[in-house]
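Protocol step 4 of 5: obtain the predicted structure for the target chain.
Materials: sequence only (see below). No template structures provided, no constraints applied. The aim of this step is simply to have a reference model before the mutagenesis design in step 5. Sequence pasted as it appears in the construct record:
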Amino acid sequence: MLGLNKGEVVLVNHSDEWKQLFDEERSLLHSVIGTHIIDIQQIGSTAIDGIEAKSIMDIMVGLNSLEDIDKFNMEKLKEVGYYHLPKVRIEGKTVFAKFTDLENLTKTHVVHVVEYRGDWWEEHLFFRNYLKENRTAAKEYEQLKKLLAEKYPNDERSYTNEKKKFVESILKMKKHGS
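Step 4 output (structure tokens):
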């Protein structure tokens, strides 16, 4: 089961169901966005076997150009529960989220739309793949997330900001060719 209310930070045990849910969501996104998509990948902790995660699935959609977002059928995206998050301003990335409850802002999926094979694409995949292949690093990340979830149970922004140092330490390996 996926979903967390706005601002909440609650970790759950890894679910074998997440892979199937991703496959279903990828098919849905392909049917709604279609020809503009080059690739779709599951990223974030739900993509890492055996570690706890927030019950929100992170999905990365790669496009030739971010300008292709202008060709998305926003009404069709809303019909399937996805909304553009214009307040989330990150250079090189556009973010959409899927909600099951708009009153409590219960979010189930976050879609990061980026340029295929651009910096965001490469960094997200490097981080995911590194944790998938390195159990020690994955468990370290899980421990950090547990501590932060305890420290910030209702402050998703602080939780995310404090994880950045760990993420950046892994990404430095990519930059140094490790």
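Step 4 remarks: The mean pLDDT is 94. The longest strand covers residues 106-115.
Proceed to step 5.
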